Amino acid sequence: MEQETRPLLHASHAESGGGHHIASEGESGRSGFHPGHFLKVLWRSSCTAAMLVNFLWPVVPVALVVHFFPGLHIYKFILTYLAVIPTANLIGFSGQEFARKMPKVAGILIETTFGSIVEIILFVVLIVKHKSGSEEGNLIPIIQAAILGSILTNLLLCLGLCFFFGGLRQTSQKFHAIVSEVGTGLLLVAAFGLLIPSAFYSALKSEAVPHADNQGAGSLGGEFTKRKLQEDVLSISHATSLALILASILWVWFQAKSQHSIFDEVIEMDEHRDADRAADMEKPKFTMTETITALTLSLGLVTLLLILLVEQIEHVVEAGVPDQFLGLILLPLVEKAAEHITAIDEAWGKSSYNADGTCTCADGVINVALYHCLAPSIQTALFNGPLVVLLGWILGKPMDLNFEIFMVVLLVLSILVVGNFLRDGESNWLEGALLVIVYIIIAIACWYYPNPDVATSNSLNGSIVVDMPLSPDLIRQLRVLIDESKGADKLI
Question: According to the UniProt record, where is the region Disordered (predicted)?
Answer without folding.
Answer: 1-27
